[in-house]
From TrEMBL:
CDD domains: TM_PBP2. Coiled coil: none annotated. The lineage of its organism: Bacteria, Bacillati, Bacillota, Bacilli, Bacillales. The keyword Amino-acid biosynthesis does not apply. It comes from the Bacteria. This is Cellobiose transport system permease protein. The keyword Transport applies. Keywords: Cell membrane, Membrane, Transmembrane, Transmembrane helix, Transport. The chain crosses the membrane at residues 12-36, 78-101, 113-135, 141-162, 193-214, 247-268. Belongs to the binding-protein-dependent transport system permease family. Residues 78-268 form the ABC transmembrane type-1 domain. It is a multi-pass membrane protein. Its main location: membrane.
């Protein structure tokens, strides 16, 4: 019996080593683009096309970033992007959680059809609606404004789907029925019972929405024309409008524009992981 246990223990240890090795290699592959971006941000433009590629940091980080500041309003673009992403994230969390709560815990005519219709909007490429959406924003007088950019992101089908699935599994029907018997309104139930339970899902959806809006370019580039209203993505695009492209300068701007996303993820990392693993452990 002891020999069999030893064999099983060896097999388990070997399998764990293989899994950890695979995860380690996958992590290196995932992190390498960020590391290479950092290396290029510290090197001159010529290092971008060097063969063999340069893999060690240089000493031009400050110089390259000064070039970025001389070309664009970097901090103004960062502030505009932060305001845009923060407002969109808050509104999406509110709308998606309310809609998810309704789809998960209420019965009303056409619920399934409406939910399927919401999901079907995710398969439509956003480029197809670019022209009519532009004309609608133009007629509303919202061109070259942050509200004109953010209004397009308020309805988030993926957020509604995630909230509906999470609330269906995490919030017991008995708890809602008990609250109704105590005389709580639907919004009181949502505010006092549902919201505290779905905080991990809030963190997950918040990170997804914030990073998606931060990295979106096409719609922001279409709507914004005044340099004072540029988000960081539109501002960085101006760095490549010159004849002699300085890749070190561009990579420096992209690197520092990525830092807020890393900070946001690290701040909500625990809630993000707990949301992903919800249901895997009883």
């Amino acid at each position: 019996m002891s020999k069999q246990k030893e064999k099983k223990g060896r097999k388990l240890s070997i399998s764990k080593i293989i899994v950890y090795l695979f995860l380690f290699l996958a992590s290196l592959i995932s992190l390498f683009p960020f590391y290479w971006m950092f290396v290029m941000a510290t090197r001159p433009s010529a290092a971008y096309n060097s063969i063999p590629p340069v893999l060690t940091p240089g000493n031009m980080m400050v110089e390259n970033f000064k070039k970025v500041l001389s070309q664009i309003d970097f901090f103004g673009g960062m502030w505009n992007s932060f305001v845009l992403c923060a407002i969109v994230t808050i509104v999406v969390l509110f709308i998606s959680s309310l809609a998810g709560f309704a789809f998960a815990k209420f019965k009303f005519p056409g619920k399934n059809v409406l939910f399927v219709a919401v999901l079907l909007t995710m398969i439509i490429p956003p480029q197809l609606g670019l022209i009519p959406q532009y004309f609608l924003i133009s007629k509303a007088g919202l061109l070259n404004t942050l509200p004109g950019v953010m209004i397009l992101f308020f309805l988030h089908p993926l957020g509604i789907f995630l909230m509906r699935q999470y609330i269906s599994e995490a919030v017991p029907d008995e708890l809602i029925e008990a609250a109704k018997l105590d005389g709580c309104s639907n919004f009181r139930i949502f505010r006092s019972i549902v919201l505290p339970i779905i905080l991990p899902a809030f963190a997950t959806l918040g990170i997804i929405v914030f990073t998606a809006v931060w990295g979106e370019f096409l719609w922001q580039f279409t709507i914004l024309r005044d340099p004072e209203m540029y988000t960081i993505q539109v501002a960085l695009a101006q760095l490549s409008n010159t004849q002699n492209v300085d890749f070190g300068m561009i990579m420096s701007g992209v690197f520092w524009a990525t830092v807020p996303l890393l900070v946001i993820f690290l701040l909500f990392n625990r809630l993000f992981i707990s949301s992903i693993t919800e249901g895997s452990v009883k």
